Amino acid sequence: xDVEHARTFVAVMETASFSHAAExxxxxxxxxxxxxxxxxxxxxxxxxxxxxxxxxLTPAGNQFTRHARxxxxxxxxxxxxxxxxxxYSARLNIGAQISHWDDIMVSWVCWLRQHHPDLAVRxxxxxxxxLMRQIADGLxxxxxxxxxxxxxxxxxxxxxxxxxxxxxxxxIKRGKLAADTWQSDYVFVDWGPEYRVEHGLAWPDMETxxxxxxxxxxxxxxxxxxGGAGYFPHRMVRGLIDEKRLFAISGAPSFRRSVYLxxxxxxxxxxxxxxxxxxxxxxxxx
Length: 286
Description:
This protein is of the alpha/beta class. The chain has 3 domains: 3-71, Orthogonal Bundle (Arc Repressor Mutant, subunit A); 82-159 and 259-285, D-Maltodextrin-Binding Protein, domain 2 (3-Layer(aba) Sandwich), CATH 3.40.190; 161-257, Periplasmic binding protein-like II (D-Maltodextrin-Binding Protein, domain 2), CATH 3.40.190.10. The protein is built from 11 helices and 11 strands. Strand 3, helix 5 and strand 4 form a beta-alpha-beta unit. Helix 1 packs across helix 3 (29-43) and helix 1 (3-15) crosses helix 4.
């Protein structure tokens, strides 16, 4: 059985759509359909029920899910291990959203090089969805993200909570939260679906900002160059506040977000506890 058939099955199962699976895999919808038909022929059973309401797993499809995931994971791990230089005992494949690379993840990689020099490290930056997909496909061992998806076989734990605060390049006096004092140059930074809901509840009358960023580090650089206000994790702006390049807007609502560690089940089993302990210590200190 070709691993691409198993990968295609997983994509259809997770998206509940042949067309969305095709987009994820960068193939045509007819290719997805052909792979699923071939897979069903080889297994001798239907894996999906198709209707106008969508695509649903059959009982046989439910049973096949864990086998398909494992096939994809084993293939990804084998591909990584075969490329491992002789000087290293294992490879650690890690990923995180870009907002966690500037401090936490870079510090962790430095820690890994000092304490585990025999580990080769491959580091990836991606969106929440792409990182979850790479873990499910066996391409990543660990990922640090905001909003994990519940996937059978993956371990999820909360690393820490962070406080997202409103800052501005102009000093706003206490009690001066009127819209015309800072919202004219407000930059919206998208910290995910939960944040968007909480932000809308906190600022129901706010007009749509002229500038919207999906990447926090880019938004911060823009504000520092152009001037303006925006919400950022306190760990990202703490030094800039100390340097008086940014000012916290007193009295503005803040938001708490949880940061999670997602792990594949077989990730570095002999060394995993110590490796993760190092990450936890760095995350708590951030």
